[in-house]
Amino acid sequence: MNGQDIKDQRQMRIIFMGTPDFALPSLKILLDNGYEIPLVVTVPDKPRGRGLVLSSSPVKLLAQKHHLAVLQPEKMKDPNLVQTLENLAPDLIVVVAFRILPPEVFRVPTLGAVNLHASLLPKYRGAAPINWAIIRGEKETGVTTFFLKEAVDTGSVILQARLPVGPDETAGELHDRLADVGAEVVLHTVRLIASGKAQPHSQDESLVTGAPKIHKDDCRINWDSGAPQVHNFIRGLSPKPAAFTFHKGTLLKVYRSRVLTGGEEGRPGEVAAIEGRLVVKAREGSIELLEIQQEGKKKLPAPEFLRGYCLKPGEVLS
Question: Are 15 and 124 found together in one domain?
């Protein structure tokens, strides 16, 4: 039985695996187009907030809204998970922003397992492709669907879609656009596989770049960089995990900025102006900080922040 027979004779059975908001448009578009999803797999509920109340993933909440069965395994190599998948006899697994799948899982479906990745593979393989594309000043990025194999993000590419990156666009803004475009690519990918018309091709290993997970310690602003690099760093980490700097031991998170041209020379990190605007020197050029948050307080536009926080020209952020 080929892919076309499957689509003609019965609805494709798709198991969906995902966790965060990025996965929601893809799950929704499959449901809206009538695909049968006998199971959604997501992460276990986690305690959050001061009261440590158990919180479900966005994918679980959407699945429950549509009365879909949900499985939340602690480990992906759990024999019970594999047995459950085999019993369901899926045609396809669709993975969007989820864990690394072992071979015993991604080999279960008859037509394979497909992953949506938020970059133009083989560029930006890894956990944080959106952040790194902006941090490195890319003017274009996109999404890729590919068949899973054992090595992470290395499988054969099925489809890609390209998107321009705005000069001031944040990772959060790009995330939302990529999620919506990615959903359309997922739908097109599923249709190609069902019809037997998918033509996957290998990735060019000579073009590989990495996008490793970003930790809090990686988010400190280096004012000894050029102004464009500082700007890209700030927007590439906004809104999460957020770039930060220190002023006299106080941590300040920065969410939005603007590159300025010209201006006097100064020490990297030196506050150059505070008259309703917060301008800071970089190694080359200056940055205007537009949205700031003092640790433990609300995120504020710079003019409002400066009304409640004492900064003086000549002081240095570090």
Answer: yes
The answer to whether residue 317 sits within a structural domain is no
Does residue 313 fall inside a structural domain? Answer: no
Q: What is the mean pLDDT of residues 291-312?
A: 95
CATH of the domain at 34: 3.40.50.170
Q: Could you check whether the bond before residue 303 is cis, i.e. omega within 30 degrees of 0? A: no
Q: Which residues, listed in sequence order, are joined to residue 201 by a DSSP beta bridge?
A: 157
Beta-strand (E) ranges in the chain? 13-18, 36-41, 46-48, 53-55, 70-71, 92-96, 113-117, 140-147, 157-164, 243-247, 250-260, 271-273, 278-281, 286-294, 299-301
Q: What is the tens place of the pLDDT at every residue in 179-220?
A: 999 999 999 999 999 999 999 999 999 999 999 999 999 999
CB of 237 within 8 A of CB of 131?
yes
DSSP string, 158-223: EEEEEEE--TT--HHHHHHHHHHHHHHHHHHHHHHHHHT----B---GGG--B-PPPPGGGGB--T
Q: Which residue has the tokens 């605007």?
A: 277
C-alpha 50/C-alpha 55 separation (Å) is 12
In whole angstroms, give the CA distance from residue 181 to residue 25.
Answer: 9
Backbone angles phi, psi at 291, to 5 degrees: -140, 120
What is the per-residue pLDDT across 237-266, written as a single tens digit (0 to 9) for each?
A: 999 999 999 999 999 999 999 999 876 677
User: Hey, what amino acid is at 54?
Assistant: L
What residues have CB less than 8 Å from 233, skipping those under 6 apart?
135, 221, 222, 225, 243
What is the tally of structural domains in the chain? 2
**Which tokens go with 40?**
């959604």
Which pTM was predicted?
Answer: 0.93
